[in-house]
Amino acid sequence: DTETYEDFFMGMAHFKDIALAHILGFEQKKAAGRHLCVEAIRHYSDFVNLVADLYPEYNVAK
């Protein structure tokens, strides 16, 4: 049974970019506060299709 995510979007970022943001946040006093690290905003179905294409050995429902 699969669910439908008609209006579900998610922010995506590479883990190395997130790690660097954490390091810079700790090292730079002027970086105080909250920050949002997002490379792209994509619909959930785009993410599912990408995972299915990258890992065809897994049964990913499209």
What is the element layout, followed by pairings?
Elements: E1 9-12, H1 15-27, E2 40-43, H2 44-54
Antiparallel strand pairs: 1-2
Describe the structure.
It comes from Trifolium medium. With 62 residues, the chain is α+β, with helices and mostly antiparallel strands. The protein has one domain (9-54). Helices cover 39% and strands 13% of the residues. It contains 2 helices and 2 strands.
Number of helices: 2
- Counting structural domains, the number is 1
Structural class: alpha+beta
Mean pLDDT: 88
Major beta-sheet overview: 2 strands, antiparallel
Q: How many angstroms does the end-to-end distance come to?
A: 12 Å
Tally of extended strands?
2
- Unreliable stretches: none
SSE arrangement, N to C: EHEH
Largest beta sheet: strand ordering: 1-2
The residue fraction in helices comes out at 25-40%
As a percent range, the share of strand residues is: 5-15%
Shape: elongated
What integer value in Å does the Rg equal? 16 Å
Organism: Trifolium medium
Protein name: Cinnamoyl-CoA reductase 1-like
